[in-house]
Each structure stands twice: as C-alpha cells, then as structure tokens.
Design brief:
By secondary structure, the protein is α+β, with helices and mostly antiparallel strands. Helices cover 31% and strands 26% of the residues. The protein contains two helices and four strands. The chain has a four-stranded mixed β-sheet, covered by helices on one side. α1 crosses α2.
C-alpha cells in the first residue's frame, strides 16, 4: 500500500483497529492489516498501532490526535482497498 509509505501527521497519537478474527464482514480489514501494518510501522515506528480481534466485533478504526481529538470510521463489509481509502481519509493521507 503505497498510500501509507510516508510518515503520518505528528498530531496523530494512536491508531486502534477492531475486527472479528473469523467473520466474513471483517475480511477486508484483516487483509488491510496484513498488507499495510508493516508499511505504517516502518514509516512511523513510534506511533502506537493497536489491533484488537474479538469474536463478533464489528470492524472499525479509531484515530486519536493531539488534544484528545478522536475520529472513527466503520469498516464492516468493506474490501481491503475500501478499508485503505477509508483509513487514509480519516488520517488525511493524500
């Protein structure tokens, strides 16, 4: 995923991704994690990226910015490329 091949905003403090480890509705999110997590961590080694998998959990992503500002996006039933676009939009990655 070349979209995430650069450092993210220094205002970004944390990324949290929730999904079901077996549910079909979270398949795109799981694929996004497998393909993009290493790229994000390579370019943002000090940024906490937390991935939480639990049975029946709807796929979604939260981003916490400085001053406690938090944004989230629902990722349920999206393909991996749609998940990447949604995450990029919330993180304002161009």
């Amino acid at each position: 995923m070349s979209t995430f091949s650069k450092a993210l905003s220094p205002a970004l403090r944390e990324i949290r991704i929730f999904c079901c480890q077996t549910g079909q509705a979270s398949a795109g999110t799981r694929q996004f994690i497998l393909s993009t997590y290493p790229v994000i961590k390579k370019h943002n080694p000090d940024l906490p990226v937390m991935i939480r998998e639990a049975s029946g959990t709807p796929a979604r992503m939260f981003a916490r910015f400085e001053r406690g500002v938090e944004k989230h996006v629902e990722l349920e039933n999206l393909s991996s490329s749609d998940v990447a676009a949604s995450v990029a939009r919330i993180l304002s990655v161009s």
